[in-house]
Amino acid sequence: TQHEVLAHVQEIPENGADIAHLGHLHVPSVFKGADLQTIFTNSKILDVAKHEWQGTWRTLEGEGNEHLASVSIQHAFAINAGTIKLFEMTVEAKQIGPGLVHLHLNTSLGKGVLVQTVTPLGPLKQKICHHLYTSPSFIAPFAKFVLHSEACHVERDIMIWNNKQYRKSPLLVAEDKLIKSFRTWYKQFYSQNSPTIDTIDKYDTDW
C-alpha cells in the first residue's frame, strides 16, 4: 500500500510513541472505514466489533543501538463487548532510524513482517509505503485482510496528520509522556545543518 501525507516527516514515527491514541482513534472496527467524520457517528450496528490495544514505546539504547526504538503492542479483534476475541496478534515494531519500521506480526495463523518506509517528497510532504511478507501458513486472504486493516488505520492517522499543527512545547498529560522521550531520541537524526521541525516555517509550505 502507498499513501501521501502532508506533514513533517517526524510526525509519522512519533505516532508510535503516542500510545494513548490507540484506545480512541483505532478502536472502531476497520469495517467502519477510515473517515473520522463518520466512523464515530454512523451505524451503531458495526460497533459490535472493535479493536483492543495495549502497548508501550521504548528506545533500544546500548552499544550501537542508539538509532533503534521499539513499540510493543498486544492487539485483539473482538465482538460482543470484548467478550469474544476472533483473533489476537502481538506486534513488535522496530523503528530503525528516522524512516524505516519493521513490524513483526505474530498471530495464530502464522508470522509476518510489515515493512514501512517513509520517504520525504518535500518539507511537508511524505510518502508511506507498506510491504507485507508472511510465512506460508499466513494464508493469502488473511494476509490481504491484515494489509487492508493496516491501510485503514493509517488513513485515520493521515486525516489527523494532514490537519494537525506542530507545537514545540505542547501541553501534555501523563498519558503523553512518551512523546517527550521520543522527541529527545529523534533529535539525533538531524545534522547541524538540517532544517528541523522548529524551523519549518522558513520554507514555502504551499503545496
UniProtKB/TrEMBL annotation:
Main location: membrane
Gene3D superfamilies, per database record: Naphthalene 1,2-dioxygenase Alpha Subunit, Chain A, domain 1
GO terms, biological process: cholesterol metabolic process
Localization per Swiss-Prot or TrEMBL: Membrane
InterPro entries, A to Z: Cholesterol_7-desaturase (IPR050584), KshA-like_C (IPR045605)
Molecular function GO terms recorded: oxidoreductase activity
Pfam families from the UniProt entry: KshA_C
Protein name: Cholesterol 7-desaturase-like
Record bears the keyword Ligase: no
3-ketosteroid-9-alpha-monooxygenase oxygenase component-like C-terminal domain: residues covered: 3-190
PANTHER family: CHOLESTEROL 7-DESATURASE NVD, IRON-SULFUR DOMAIN CONTAINING PROTEIN
Keyword annotations of the record: Membrane, Oxidoreductase, Transmembrane, Transmembrane helix
Gene Ontology, cellular component aspect: cytoplasm; membrane
